[in-house]
Write a structure and sequence with these properties.
This protein is of the alpha/beta class. The chain is built from 25 helices and 17 strands.
């Protein structure tokens, strides 16, 4: 009789979305989509029956989501807004009203009608040039999948029923799936699909379980019961590793846990260099609920509040009171620290609201951000009124995104002054002296930064878009995303130019792109002269640790040295060596990948 062959060792590279290293057995779960092969026409008599089937499926889905929300563990309750967004999708007219209308007008079965509605929504979202916003299509797909399962009567395995310590392997996991995870049993997960900004990633981080997504072939290559090593720091998954690799990663687990603990204990200390230079560390947030995490991780205010969510969550535009209450609540929570509100940074094609705007061939270069606001002054004025009113309840500042030149600043400030006058006349409390900033994220704004600096109170460098526009890179396009390089000498020169212009005018500068939370970039940014960095809240303890391990003298030397280098690879290589030199014990212990230094 032939002996069974041991499973072959394999290694996969994916996207790390939640840090940590785990070793355990795979539990492959079926999260394949419901396959709708049939499309049939219905007569007038049966149209009402299809509408009723659809309505019952919506109701069942809503009940399931409410149960999941009510059953969320206390330590992740602050993320219940994710399931709230699912419930809002269930009521969105692009999905529900459109589907009900198709059933009547096209006389087709409910399953086919909802699939057609979903495809129309996909077509709209495919044009969105913002990774976070475009990834919200996955939320719509997850909700639609639940509705289809309720329509077809195909139940889905509940992850709450897992009874042994395992690592979940799935084609995809929805945030609703992750709320069901029993973290005493589920050690972590890996999926074929997914990205860094997905709600599933947010939930994994909240649950503090390692996760690697975007593996493409995981469910085809991994079998139930395979032994896995999941490295949520480096984004790697090892299948059926040998004993030597298991021991190596067990040692890494100990080292990473040690350094995470040390970093967490010092997160509330100031970010001060060895020679006494103080750096302000702030946070970027999307939702009110994230403020708690900012405080926990030692953030000193909000350097970027992306205000788009309230415009996306409902079919209708938010009114002034809804905006005001949200901004006021955040301002009060972070006071006396500063709250910097970025005005609406979406284009017409990005709204899930009652706007009829022509779809664009290239929305990244079209009617978006400040351009859209200046074209739609009523929408802009409503938001500015809410921002100014919130300023009476905290330390609030406002900044305009995607500024390309002085004219946009002048027009935006004129509208701001008009709104101030109206609030004054109405006797409504507001901040008449609110500071105004411009985001520097277009190369033309860098070139005229000296001019812009005469008309605003501060700059905020948005490196995510600045890199994309300067290097002509679509960072969401997998074919060219490798060219998205923060260490390109052109980018570093642009940052230096903005700092010099601001320094000459005596205004403050912050940097709020992903570079701010990159441990390799921070020494250079400090050396160039940045004194305020704003980042994802979870990055704050790590970046503070880096800063407290540097002297400003050495940081300036680093900036001078990389300024003489001519390629991004040379700069990156230099900074990897520098960080390894700063933390040799971490390098030996294998903890540097946890820092993003491989």
């Amino acid at each position: 009789m032939t002996e069974p062959q041991p499973a072959a060792e394999k290694r996969f590279k994916g996207i790390a979305v939640s840090p940590g290293i785990i070793i355990g057995k795979a539990r492959v779960v079926d999260r394949s989509k419901v396959k709708i092969f049939y499309r049939y026409l219905v007569d007038d008599v049966h149209v009402a029956r299809e509408q009723e089937r659809f309505a019952l499926a919506l109701r069942a889905t809503e009940e399931q989501l409410v149960r999941l929300k009510n059953g969320m563990p206390e330590h992740v309750k602050e993320h219940s807004f994710i399931l709230d967004s699912y419930l809002m999708i269930l009521k969105d007219n692009m999905l529900c009203d459109a589907t009900a209308r198709r059933i009547v007008e096209e006389k087709i079965n409910a399953e086919w009608a909802i699939k057609k509605s979903l495809q129309e929504i996909r077509d709209i979202f495919s044009q969105i040039d913002d990774e976070y916003i475009s990834n919200r299509i996955h939320d719509v797909e997850n909700v639609t999948e639940r509705v289809l399962r309720n329509l077809s009567g195909q139940p889905q395995e509940s992850l709450s029923e897992v009874r042994e310590r395992v690592i979940i392997v799935a084609h995809d996991l929805s945030p609703a799936d992750t709320t069901e995870l029993n973290v005493s049993k589920v050690m972590g997960f890996v999926t074929d699909l997914g990205g860094r900004t997905s709600h599933t990633a947010i939930m994994a981080q909240a649950l503090e379980i390692p996760g690697v997504v975007g593996l493409a072939q995981a469910t085809k290559e991994i079998r139930d019961g395979d032994l896995l090593i999941v490295d949520g720091n480096a984004g790697e998954v090892l299948v059926n590793p040998d004993d030597g690799l298991i021991i190596e990663y067990q040692e890494k687990q100990v080292q990473v846990a040690k350094y995470k603990s040390a970093i967490a204990r010092t997160s509330h200390l100031p970010a001060e260099t060895l020679d006494g230079h103080r750096v302000r560390i702030m946070a970027n947030i999307e939702f009110l609920e994230e403020v708690t995490a900012v405080r926990e991780y030692g953030g000193e205010g909000i350097g970027l509040y992306r205000t788009e969510f309230l415009y996306l969550k409902n079919p209708q535009l938010p009114d002034e009171e809804e905006l005001f209450e949200d901004y006021r609540d955040v301002a009060e929570l972070v006071a006396p620290d500063v709250l910097i509100l970025r005005t609406l940074d979406l284009g017409g094609d990005k709204f899930m609201a009652d706007l009829e705007i022509t779809r664009e061939m290239n929305p990244a270069l079209g009617l978006r951000a400040i351009r859209f606001c200046l074209k739609e002054p009523e929408i802009f004025e409503t938001q500015l009124r809410a921002i100014l009113r919130a300023g009476a309840y905290g330390n609030v500042q406002v900044m305009f995104p995607m500024i390309s030149g002085l004219q946009e600043v002048l027009e935006a400030k004129a509208i701001l002054e008009k709104v101030k006058g109206e609030l004054e006349a109405q006797g409504l409390p507001h901040d008449p002296d609110m500071k105004v900033g411009a985001m520097i994220e277009i190369p033309s704004a860098v070139t005229v930064a000296d001019i812009l600096a005469q008309h605003v109170d501060f700059f905020s460098i948005g490196t995510n878009d600045l890199i994309q526009y300067a290097l002509a890179i679509d960072r969401i396009n997998g074919d060219v995303s490798y060219l998205y390089e923060p260490f390109h000498p052109a980018i570093l020169r642009m940052i230096r130019q903005v700092l010099e212009a601001a320094g000459a005018a005596g205004i403050d500068v912050s940097l709020c792109g992903e570079m701010a939370g990159d441990p390799l970039c921070v020494p250079v940014l400090l050396g160039l002269g940045l004194e305020t960095l704003s980042m994802n809240a979870r990055s704050i303890p790590l970046i503070k640790t880096i800063i407290r391990s540097l002297s400003m003298e050495d940081a300036r030397k680093d900036a001078e040295e990389v300024g003489r280098l001519t390629t991004a690879d040379e700069v990156r290589g230099y900074m990897v060596d520098r960080v390894r030199g700063l933390f040799p014990d971490m390098d030996e212990g294998g903890a540097l990948p946890f820092w993003g230094v491989g």
